[in-house]
Amino acid sequence: QVRLVESGGGLMQSGGSLRLSCTASGMIVSIGAMGWYRQAPGKQRELVATITSGGSTNSVDSVKGRFTVSRDNAKNTVDLQMNLLKPEDTAVYYCYANIQTPFYRNDYWGQGTQVTVSS
């Protein structure tokens, strides 16, 4: 069994900062890409930022220069530092990881954490 647990969401005013954290646990052999997706009400889930095991990152244009994704391979964690938050960043944020267990490789998701940005 593999589990991803997120923390750090909440309510913040426009222009403020929040940091999301996610920890993977369970029968993990190795982790490939990790990252964050988000889903706003009435919209499809979209990629926010991802990071490879080697540290290469990718992010959606709307968060470039404001959000930073990082990971700690020793701790199986991935974080998302969100600065200069805007109301349009309001969404449920989901942690993602591509994980190799002793039996197979699969994509895993966290339960989601709400981020609400007020204007």
What does this protein structure show overall?
Helix content is 0%, strand content 60%. The N and C termini lie far apart (41 Å). With 119 residues, the chain is mainly beta. Strand 9 and strand 10 (105-109) form a beta hairpin. The mean pLDDT is 97. It has strands spanning 2-7, 10-13, 18-26, 30-39, 46-51, 57-59, 67-72, 77-82, 91-100, 105-109, 113-118. 33% of the residues are buried.
Précis, in short:
This protein is mostly beta strands and 119 residues long. 0% of the residues lie in helices and 60% in strands. The strands form 2 sheets. Strands 2, 4, 5, 6, 9, 10 and 11 form a 7-stranded mixed sheet that branches. A 4-stranded antiparallel sheet has the order 1-3-8-7, with no helix packed on it.
Could you list some keywords that capture this structure?
single chain; 119 residues; mainly beta; 4-stranded antiparallel beta sheet; 7-stranded mixed beta sheet
Rough shape? Answer: elongated
The proportion of residues in beta strands is over 45%
Unreliable segments of 5+ consecutive residues = none
Estimate percent helicity: under 10%
- Major sheet summary line: 7 strands, mixed
Q: Could you report the average pLDDT, rounded to the nearest whole number? A: 97
Q: How many DSSP helices?
A: 0
> Rounded to an integer, what's the Rg over CA atoms?
14 Å
Distance between the termini: 41 Å
| Broad structural category | mainly beta
Number of strands: 11
Element order, helices and strands?
EEEEEEEEEEE
